[in-house]
Each structure stands twice: as C-alpha cells, then as structure tokens.
C-alpha cells in the first residue's frame, strides 16, 4: 500500500512538473532559461534503467552533433566569452531530448495529448490578456496613435515592450500558429458539436492574434501551412501529391520570372526587398544577407567561430558602408541558415540541414501531420529570423520536436506489441 501511495505521489509530481513547463508562453518569468533542468530532474526521478536501442538515441545524437560543432568552434573564436554565452544558452538542444529519452515509457498517447491541450489552454489565457492589454493601451494612447500611420507604427516597441512579459512578435505568432494547428486537429477528431464550435472559435481567436501581431513571415507561413494541414489531416492529399504540387508551383513561378520583362523583374525584386524590410527602419534584410555572404565566402569551411559572428558582421557592414545597419545594431544574420554557415562553416550548415531533413522524413514516414507542420513553421521562420539566438526559440523548438519525436517512437512500439 505504501509503495502504491509513493508511486502515485511520484506520478503526480512528474505530471505536474511537465504540465507546468507547457505554460512557458504564459508565465511572467523566463521559465525557458531553467525549464529544461526541471525536466532533467523529473526524468532522472523516473529513470528506471529501461533498455534503450539506437532509434531512441537518434534525436539526441543529431541535436548533439550540431551543438558539438558550435562548441568546437570556440577553439578559434577570438571573443571566447561571447561564444561561451551562446553555447550555454543553446545547451537546451542537448538536454531536452535526453530529458524525454529518460521518461519515454511515461509518454503515453493520453499524456502527450494532455500536454498539448495544456499548451493550447495557456495560449488562450495569454490571448485574452493580450487583447485586454491592447484595448487598454489604445484607450490610454489613442491621441498619439491617431497621429501615426499604420505603416510607420512599430508594433513591437509601441505595444509589446509594455506587455507584462517580454514577447517578440515572431515568437508569439509561431506559438499561436502551432496552437491553431492543434485546435484544427481537435476539431477534426471531436464528434461533439459543442466542442467543435469551441475549437472553431479558438481557431478564429488565435488567427486574429496572429494577424494583429503582424509578423509577416508567420502570416505567410499561416497562409501556406493551414490549408495544407487541413488537406492532409482530412486525407484529401498525401505527401506525394503535396510534393508534386509544390514542384509544379515552383517550376511555374521560375518560368514566369525567367520570361518576364525587365520592368516586371525589377518590380518583383523591389517587392521582395520591401517585404524583407525590418520594422520601420527602411532597412532590408537583403543588405544583411549580402554582408553575411561576404563573411561566409572568406570563412567557407569552418566559419568565424561561435563567438565572432557579431564582430565579423559589424566589420562587413563597415566595409560595405552599411552604416544604417551598424547604427541600428542589426548585428545578427536574420537568417538561421546563414548564421550556422557563418559561425560554424560548411560542416555546421550541412549538419544543421541534415537534422531537419531527418526530422521531416520521420514526420512524413509516420504520417504525423502536426509534426510535419511544426517543422515547416520552424523552417519558414528561420528564413528571416535567428530564432535560435533567443532562449524562447530554442526552448520552443527543442520541447516540441522532442515531444513529437518520442511520441512517434511510442506509437510505433505500441503497434509492434499488438
């Protein structure tokens, strides 16, 4: 009886800890900085010497290798202290898969479902706080806002900087987009009309917030992945058809661009440059990308080192006389792929790409449409943001990629046992 009671207490602590971690988007303090250590502690508490085969270790190995490349690059980094800070910030990449590996037996389908539901609930509460905050903000500063045009209104600095917790528009939008996809799946699975109605209201509410926050890359991603996800979960298309449609669309777009007139090409180029503009600073990411490519070209194989990316980009801005970039302190590459190429060289870049190819392959093979869509969100956002430069992005990606990865392993095991 005592053993059962002790086991029940451990189970309660374990579940409460993991449910608490899923509230990271809502909590006013920065739980992302130490949340992974809480998970590691809970994992060791439940570790029972279970037999682990190679497939269990794959995610740990993939995450460990490209993290290890960053650690090795410290050897040739001039700014060692900055490099160490970056490596310590990204240790979640290494620890998160280990935390889930150790408690893999506890990852039942019901438990994962409840984790995702808790995450969506936290977003709903955050959304209510956010809308209430916006209404209050407009009432207090309506006179000032009326004098500003919509285009010149810097949303992040005008509103989000005054919110009760530090929120970046892109990260907030990513969270609500993932929450939206979870709600779409729940609406599809539910046979209760009342619940379906609630899920649809939640979807509309989350979509409203995504468009209010106005993170352009996430809005574009929403417009692409939402219909694709619905078509996949309702089995209207499969991944082979999706690939063919994507190939046809890309080919058609390329043909149109090749055979368009010089004026049309210039208009397209200007549209791209305008869409890649950062806030209201009249600075395009294309200038940042060009400066990044110049640094990469000089350090192709091994990069400049984890600690020196900022310094080398500043030097490139000065060489190219991009003083506006320097004055406004846009020191990162604003593209996660370029960052790994610049800091760790070709090997770091290739291993980073291979990691995502493997995860995409796994999601497609297991027909895990939510996992696939989550990866698509990350892949798209990384085109314009260094989401792994912030602990928010690192924690978001590490947590959900671990959840989806080990959920798939558990489902596969359960099928083999039947």
Mind explaining what this structure looks like?
By secondary structure, the chain is an all-alpha fold. The chain has a two-stranded antiparallel sheet with strand order 1-2. The chain contains 18 helices and 2 strands. Helix 8 packs antiparallel against helix 17. Strand 1 and strand 2 form a beta hairpin. The two termini are 31 Å apart.
Task: State the gist of this model.
This protein is mainly α. The chain has 18 helices and two strands.
Fraction of helical residues: over 70%
Straight-line distance between termini: 31 Å
The number of helices is: 18
Radius of gyration: 23 Å
Number of strands: 2
Which structural class matches the secondary elements?
mainly alpha
Instruction: Bin the strand percentage.
Output: under 5%
SSE string = HHHHHHHHHHHHEEHHHHHH
What are the low-pLDDT stretches, counting only 5+ consecutive residues below 50?
146-153
Kindly report the oligomeric state of this protein: single chain
Mean pLDDT: 82
User: Which sequence of strands runs across the widest sheet?
Assistant: 1-2
**How would a crystallographer describe the biggest sheet?**
2 strands, antiparallel
Q: Note the overall shape.
A: globular
